Each structure stands twice: as structure tokens, then as C-alpha cells.
């Protein structure tokens, strides 16, 4: 049976943990707002880029000029890019993405395909190393410090692998931000690029773009940027989902601390009452003993 002093120490320790989880929740909330702002600012650019590429694709298809990044070939080797976080304390965020990635890799292997694995985040790196996977590329230290240059580096590596025919397909797996309490695992084929469809024009009449230089050359220049945009979007989505998951996890941890403090305080009260009752019984017993000795 723990003493009252031990129980009070435990309550104090839980209160300290509560302060930490509460602070981490507020930090995650601030980071989430920042990432969401970046996503909202980025969407108009991504939408316009998609419209321009859709128009260019039509011009290129009519001429028959196909850049190497669009060439399709029989799939023998697939590069899988898995995006996770560098840190934990974010609930099932990393567990869900790693489970889905492992399942997808096993599915591709079951089809007789060779797998080349690249990862973003220390959690993915540690997970696959423990399972004796060979990692082609590892990018870490991005969580909380995301910049567009990170997407450029990753995109260039993916493009070089595809154009050099080292791989025949590139797949990216990441957590998509849906809401503060919900994330969705997404598996997208990054290369070869499929048909690019633009959003319907907001204006009733659409004015065709005028291009300089010619459409095929411009299309070939913009396609790598389009890949960068897709990777940057995946990184932004993953970052937002990570901070949302961490905020939710820390909120639940804070609530659990409150509940644990309540239960432990109840135990402390019972121990204190038992101690008081014992002392009263000792006093009463002493008084009775004195009476008997006097009698």
C-alpha cells in the first residue's frame, strides 16, 4: 500500500506531465495554422499551373512531341516514396502510413515487380531499416522546416531515376490532411505522368493562352516543375496532418492527465481518511487502556 507521501508525489508528477502536454498542444496548434496558411496560399498557383499544363498538353498531343518524362514503358521496377514525420507523439499518424506503405510494397512484390524504396522522415527510415529494407534515398530533418527547395531536390531525384530508366514507375505514399481529427492515407502514381486535366474555368468564356517559346519546349520545361508541385503538395499535406495528429494526441493526453489526477486524488483521500481513522482508533484504544488501569 503506497504511503500518502508517495501518492502526493505521483500527483505532482502527473501535473507536471499535464503542463508539458498542454504546452505541446498549443505549439502544434500554432504550427498547424501556419501550415494551413501555406496550403491556402499555394492552391491558386497549383490550380493555374494545372490549367496551363492542360492547355499545353493538348498542343503537344496534336504535334506528337512527347517529352521523356511522359514516355511509358513496361513496368518492371517501381520506386516507392514514403513520407512520414521525424518525431513521434502524434498518435497513429506514422503507424497508419507505414502499415499502408508496407502493404503496398508487398502487393507490388506479389506482382513480380522490383522495389526501390526512398523515404522522407526518420520514422520511415527507422521502420524500414529494422526490417532489413534497402533504402535508396533518405531525407530527414524536414518536419517543421519545410521549404520548396526540399521538394525540388526530391523531385529532381525522382525525375532522374525515371528518365534514366533506372525505374519504370514512381509512387508516393503520404497522409492527406482532411480535418484536425482526420487524415487519409493517399497512394499516388507520380511518374509516368498521366493525363493532366484542368479544373473547369470560372469564367464563361475561356481565352486561350499564347506561349513563347513554342508549346512543346515550354511543356518540357514546365513538367519537372509540375512534379515539384505534386511533391511539395504531398509534403505540405503530410506536415499539416502531422501537426493536427499531434495536437489531437496532446489534447487527449492532457484530458487523460486530468482523469488520472482525479483518480489518484481520490486514492490519496482514502489513504488519508484511513490514516486518520487509525489514529483515532489508537487514541480511543489508549483511553480505554488508561480507564482499565485506573479501575
Briefly summarize what is shown.
The protein has 295 residues and is of the alpha/beta class. It is built from five helices and five strands; from the N terminus they run αβαβαβαββα.
Extended strand count: 5
Structural class: alpha/beta
Q: Can you tell me the overall shape?
A: elongated
Query: Per DSSP, what share of the residues sits in E-state strands of 2 or more residues?
Result: 5-15%
Fill in the keyword field for this structure.
295 residues, alpha/beta, five-stranded mixed β-sheet, 5 helices, 5 strands, 62% helix, 14% strand, elongated
Structure explained in plain terms:
The protein is of the alpha/beta class and 295 residues long. Helix content is 62%, strand content 14%. It has helices at residues 4-63, 93-110, 122-130, 148-163, 215-294, and strands at 77-83, 114-120, 135-139, 169-179, 182-191. A five-stranded mixed sheet has the order 3-2-1-4-5, sandwiched between helices. Residues 198-206 have low confidence and may be disordered.
Topology (elements, then pairings):
Elements: H1 4-63, E1 77-83, H2 93-110, E2 114-120, H3 122-130, E3 135-139, H4 148-163, E4 169-179, E5 182-191, H5 215-294
Parallel strand pairs: 1-2, 1-4, 2-3
Antiparallel strand pairs: 4-5
Helix pairs in contact: 1-5, 4-5
Amino acid at each position: 500500500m503506497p504511503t500518502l507521501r508517495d501518492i502526493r508525489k505521483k500527483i505532482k508528477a502527473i501535473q507536471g506531465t499535464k503542463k508539458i502536454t498542454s504546452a505541446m498542444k498549443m505549439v502544434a496548434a500554432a504550427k498547424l495554422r501556419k501550415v494551413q496558411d501555406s496550403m491556402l496560399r499555394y492552391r491558386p498557383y497549383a490550380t493555374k499551373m494545372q490549367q496551363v499544363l492542360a492547355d499545353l498538353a493538348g498542343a503537344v498531343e496534336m504535334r506528337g512531341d512527347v517529352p521523356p518524362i511522359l514516355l511509358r514503358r513496361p513496368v518492371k521496377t517501381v520506386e516507392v516514396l514514403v513520407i512520414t514525420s521525424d518525431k513521434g507523439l502524434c498518435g497513429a499518424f506514422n503507424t497508419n502510413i507505414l502499415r499502408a506503405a508496407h502493404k503496398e510494397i508487398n502487393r507490388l512484390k506479389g506482382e513480380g515487380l522490383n522495389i526501390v524504396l526512398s523515404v522522407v522522415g526518420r520514422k520511415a527510415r527507422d521502420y524500414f531499416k529494422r526490417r532489413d529494407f534497402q533504402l535508396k534515398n533518405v531525407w530527414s530533418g524536414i518536419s517543421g522546416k519545410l521549404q520548396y527547395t526540399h521538394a525540388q531536390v526530391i523531385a529532381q531525384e525522382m525525375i532522374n531515376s525515371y528518365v534514366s530508366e533506372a525505374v519504370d514507375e514512381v509512387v508516393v505514399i503520404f497522409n492527406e490532411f482532411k480535418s484536425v481529427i482526420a487524415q487519409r492515407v493517399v497512394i499516388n502514381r507520380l511518374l509516368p505522368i498521366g493525363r493532366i486535366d484542368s479544373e473547369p474555368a470560372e469564367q464563361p468564356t475561356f481565352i486561350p493562352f499564347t506561349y513563347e517559346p513554342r508549346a512543346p519546349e515550354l511543356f518540357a520545361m514546365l513538367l519537372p516543375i509540375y512534379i515539384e508541385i505534386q511533391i511539395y503538395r504531398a509534403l505540405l499535406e503530410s506536415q499539416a496532418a502531422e501537426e493536427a495528429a499531434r495536437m489531437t494526441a496532446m489534447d487527449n493526453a492532457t484530458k487523460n492527465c486530468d482523469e488520472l489526477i482525479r483518480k489518484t486524488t481520490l486514492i490519496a483521500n482514502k489513504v488519508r481518511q484511513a490514516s486518520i481513522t487509525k489514529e483515532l482508533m489508537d487514541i480511543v484504544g489508549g483511553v480505554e487502556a488508561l480507564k482499565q488501569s485506573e479501575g
